[in-house]
Amino acid sequence: MLKKLGLIALCAASAFAMHNVELNINDKDLEFGAKVDMGQFNEAVDPDTVFIGAKILHGDEDHSDFNDNGDMNAYYEANFLMQKRVGSSDLVLGLGIKLNGTKNFSSIPLGIEATYKILNGAIPLYLKGAAYYAPEVLSMQDAESFLEYRVSLDVELITNGYVTVGYRSIDTNYDSNKGGDINYNRSAYIGVRFAF
Asked: pTM of the prediction?
């Protein structure tokens, strides 16, 4: 199934002028994401400010609180992000919203993202962070709340080609009779991201 999603994403990249695609892996987990820059389609929107995207994470039970009885399901999300550079600095701040879930958990978390260019020069270096939270009122199915945070260091080895080293934590809180506080995925990863 992940191979089919990869082929669909490649076709979509050429058909819809995708802003970026990313692939993050570690020894057990596979994450694929894509974002479309709405500024490429609408002249009223500045480029690099409004994004619509999707992500899938196939996490492993070794990096999760789920047990080995087949409870682990793929995590899906659709996301929307608006961002803006702060003055003439190297800091970019964004506000986002997601619709995410697994087979028996879904939520609509709100969040903040930041990117800071910490090294200029021949090989630029970026520090990125994101935090998303959904309280009970924005959680559905068996969900009580949701918290996700990420931190990564991106190195732009070639123009619009990045190598990423990061850490993510996706914490899903279920109703107490469904398992309580369960960390869906807590792991470090390495990946690549390409911008178009």
From this structure: 0.86
